[in-house]
Structure formats: structure tokens, C-alpha cells
Amino acid sequence: MYRYKGFDSALCGDSMVALEAMVNAWMEEQQPRIRQMCQSMRGEHILLSFVYEDTHQLEQRVAAQKQVGTRSSFSRFFEEEHVDERPTVPRIPATPPPLH
Hints:
It is built from two helices and three strands; from the N terminus they run E-H-E-E-H. By secondary structure, the protein is α+β, with helices and mostly antiparallel strands. The protein has a domain at 2-53. It has a three-stranded antiparallel beta sheet with strand order 1-3-2. The longest helix is centred in the C-terminal third of the chain and has 25 residues, at 55-79. The termini are far apart. Residues 79-100 are annotated as: Disordered.
């Protein structure tokens, strides 16, 4: 899920150093996967906008998918009797027969 985070330079007295420190602190703490960034003016102030994915949520989602995928693949081969219901099709040999 994408999220939005905005930083307004008015909140830090229009100090670029303070704005940079706020953005860096957020990035270090949240470690977002930034998808889009925009810088715009709001009157005399700078507005930084980020669209990002929360990496913690992303890691949890990936871990959950791996667990589900592992369980379903193991259950398919070890817990259930697997029957191949595809029609029998003659197979092409891996090596062609010798020519005489």
C-alpha cells in the first residue's frame, strides 16, 4: 500500500538545514521505499511530498507470501495424492534416433 508524507519548510522556520534534518530523520527511522517525490512552492515555503511504501509492511507481506507458498507447495507433494489429469501426449525423445 502506498502512503503519503509531506514536509513543509514553514514548520522548521524555513531553515533548509532543519528541513533536511527532518527528512533524513524520517528516512532513517521508517526506511521507506520512495516511489515518487515532488518539490513545490507554497507561498514562500518549500513543500516536499513523498509517495512511498512502508518497507516494514512490505517485508511482512513478502514473508507471509513465502510461508503460504511453501505450505501449499509442500502440501501438494507430500500431503495429497497428486494425480495428473492431463491427456497423454506422445513425447519427443530428447535425442533423435540414429540415422541409417
